[in-house]
Amino acid sequence: MSEENTPPTMYAVHSSDRLKLLMERTGTGESITSRELAAQAGVAHGTIGNLMSGAQRIVPEDKAQSIAAALGVKLLVLFVEMERAGRAFIPAQAAV
Q1: How far is CA 93 from CA 14, 37, 90, in A?
Q2: Closest CA to 10 of 63, 67, 53
């Protein structure tokens, strides 16, 4: 299968609470609103809102990278890589 036909790697947010916590205190120590995060990450405001509310848990790798970078954290602080079968391994302590 060529790279053109390979679906993007998908990432699931550990929890909406973790996202909200990271937004309250980003890597710079400042807080960020959902609109500011969306603008800095280059994603739709609805995507951030849905991740915060739990209505959406999964995003493609490029969006996950952008969101994590805008928050000033490493990707795996906020997201976990999905398995090919669409499952994510989320440790018990992260499933809060």
Answers
A1: 10, 26, 8
A2: 63
Q: What is the pTM of this model?
A: 0.81
Is residue 95 classed as helix, strand or coil in its secondary structure?
A: coil
Which of 59, 85, 71 shows the shortest CA–CA distance to 33? 71
Task: Give SS3 for 8.
Answer: coil
pLDDT surpasses 70 at 85: no
Helix (H) or strand (E) holding 11: strand 10-13
Say which residue the tokens 């969306």 belong to: 38
Backbone dihedral angles phi then psi of residue 82, each to the nearest 5 degrees: -80, 150
Positive or negative: CA dihedral 56, 18, 44, 85: negative
Check whether 42 has a pLDDT greater than 50: yes
Which amino acid type is present at position 29? Answer: G
Strand order in the sheet with 10-13: 58-60, 10-13, 79-81
